[in-house]
Amino acid sequence: xxxxxxxxxxxxxxxxxxxxxxxxxxxxxxxxxxxxxxxxxxxxxxxxxxxxxxxxxxxxxxxxxxxxxxxxxxxxxxxxxxxxxxxxxxxxxxxxxxxxxxxxxxxxxxxxxxxxxxxxxxxxxxxxxxxxxxxxxxxxxxxxxxxxxxxxxxxxxxxxxxxxxxxxxxxxxxxxxxxxxxxxxxxxxxxxxxxxxxxxxxxxxxxxxxxxxxxxxxxxxxxxxxxxxxxxxxxxxxxxxxxxxxxxxxxxxxxxxxxxxxxxxxxxxxxxxxxxxxxxxxxxxxxxxxxxxxxxxxxxxxxxxxxxxxxxxxxxxxxxxxxxxxxxxxxxxxxxxxxxxxxxxxxxxxxxxxxxxxxxxxxxxxxxxxxxxxxxxxxx
Length: 380
Prior knowledge:
By secondary structure, the chain is of the alpha/beta class.
């Protein structure tokens, strides 16, 4: 039999009510909502009606409730540090929504508190479990794209937002909204300590005084590049993921993954660069490229298509045109949910399993976010 973890939720808003409660509804054998805290009476009435839980308007009272074993922090970003410290000092386990705090200095305070209360602080980087992210990582690890040298991540929209998440003093802006998720993805995909960072922040379409367009480029010590862009000011978006390797590429848009890579069963002949003047000129490269693109037969989605030569290569303006053994695939993104982070949380608390998001990783996310903001008009 499972022993449910009794939860007190702090903040019954978009995250607490709209996400956490819904995810917990399918895990009542593992978690029970015992208490809720919010400043808005109507929200507390909703919680009482739906979960028959105790309600509080002051978090100090909720963390003092002996029936609450775990405090789920889903309050505004600028309150995360204070509310987490309060819960840890009360002896509670804490599940902390992103962003864990406002900057790296606050993150170091969290780390000090976590050291004083071992195995009590867990970070909700739930998008580590996004099905598309997991699948992209698996494809990279398979080696079919060769050595990956650049990855591009994009979260694009056009939104004229005007809520508190557009105001800097509350922790608003894309850096602390989508930023913790996508920077966490970037660091996982970099597979190396960060060697250098470039950033550019702008406010394009949103109200308030916080950035809504973020560009960060990370270069790893392994020389891999991760280029990420998060924007509420882009009307025509780029693919969510693009991966470039020495043997092929990947592009993911929506729920579809497109792959194009060199057939690993066909070794390529060695080539040597020649300093000599080409003997003759032939067809322009774009004519040859168009003919090559028209060669493969259509195939059902998900079925690899090998593109092979059908005749002698023709000469282009740049020498003999090489017909490469391309394989093209279109794959659906597998079904799944990032809500499985709750299952990992339960297994860590009740069964002693290692939690998949380490605090050190969350601290590195905050370090990168703070460096990206440094010296800009959006510094906190």
